[in-house]
Fold this protein.
Amino acid sequence: MKLLELIVSVLFLSFVLCNNAHLEQLRFSRGYDSITVDISEGYLKDYQENNNLLKNNLHQNGLKRDSIEFLPDPPGENKGDRTKCYLAGSLEGKEEGYVKVAESILFNYMDGQSQIDGYNLPDDVLDFIKTQLKWLKKQSKNHLSKVELKKDKLFFKDTEDLIDKETQFWLSVNCVLLMVRGMYDSFVENGSTITLDQFLTLPYMADMEDLLNKFDFQNGHPERVKKKNMGDCTIIVKDINNEEEDDLYIAHNTHNTYSIMLRLFKSVTIEWDEYSDFMKAKTMRFSSRYGGIASKDDFYALDSGIVAMESSILIYNNELYKRIYPESVPYFVSVTVANWMSNTNEEWIDNYLNHYGGTHIAQWVLIDTKKEKYSPGSINVLDAIMGDSEAFDVSKEFKAKGYWGGYNVPFSQRILEECHYDPVNHGYNTDERARIIASKIGEANTPESIRSLIRYNGNPSAPCGSISPRCDLSEKGGSAFGAIDSKYTQATWIKNGSIKVLGVGAPTWNIEEGFPPFKFSGRYKDVPHRETPEELSFGWHEIFSSNKEPYSN
């Protein structure tokens, strides 16, 4: 029986790993190549007995592999599913070349952050993160101490009762923390030059913007608080219902600085044993980056039948940052736990909001491909910000419109007002991208046309405000910012278990329409881009073609 299968696909720096652990490195190839780590039961036992990552008394690079006050200790023996979670982080991080690229992403990110001086997080942000991790560790450890395994079931030690949902939640949280610990240990083993404090930026990168803004505002520097006017993501879900096909076309792109173009598409499969009663998903496929535990984009395709995507909600009301406090669950933990523990959209929402910390605030669009199209719970929307949330079943609205879009604008009128959006020019139906999609969605009735639409710009004279922005092409005030990728799947691909995903890892380009590929040259030659190709001229590729076998181009 396979205990763990970890599949990682890479956008620019690509690997192929065979079952005999042979590694072929294909630097910056055009497309998505794959790395596959398949752990058999015997290999897992040998790994536990012999691998230094599981020995707490190891001295490596001057560091003792022992307790970290804010992360759980590595399992020193076979702890079942806890060991698998630790390995899911450590095996990914120990692959050849991985640490170097992760360090480059970290330095590229910090070089591009005006709110960070040098390569170290501000003290108040770092203190917040460590306080939060200590709280998570304490809560999960407390719940673990009350649990024992009897006949492949988890019971409370003092009773004959099966563990409750809250305890299940904290066991899942502990698994995410073990993934972080495993990845950090692999960095140490591979001679990483970054400190533990710097490493924490990698899993926390999605939470970081709200934390930096919180403390800049709290410390009397409102002028340093970043205001976003260009959005973060675009979502398109198109209903296809004709004589030839009955499906949903699902597309997503991510808007960000080109400094973090070193992208990673991951497929992580854990064969749960003692946690199988409450871990509903074994396979998560998601766009991410080196050193990331979660997506950040966000785009997830799960073998539970759920597709989860988000477009960030923008904050124009700095007072909301006061609602963020450390005794809560950060985004990267919340989303991983929700993905694992949920079999329906409603369960996903409940799990995500459990102790939700209010960082990386977003509108989530959830599609349950197991449900009949248009039935209750088939497509749901969650607007979640610090201190507030509102969820909607939008199945009827989706049927009436024939599509659903996400544009970094809350669907909830209450949250729209809390965040101080301009409802006239920046409401859910009045946003510029909303109007563009509404005008073009009727013509997009094939997979190719939906993939073209999610890459659409169409206005070389104002390239920063479209579905797939290219702010670098703006003649005045341009910046190396835009849609850095696009992802595409279909409901039938998720429903039939193949979890097939297509993607493109580059800003949109079409020379005939006046959009050349982006190059780190000219006025953008000084944009941080360690390890990144000088020209980003990549196209659509199939990332994964089945649930078990990665696509290799």
User: Anything to note?
Assistant: The first helix runs from residue 41 to 50.
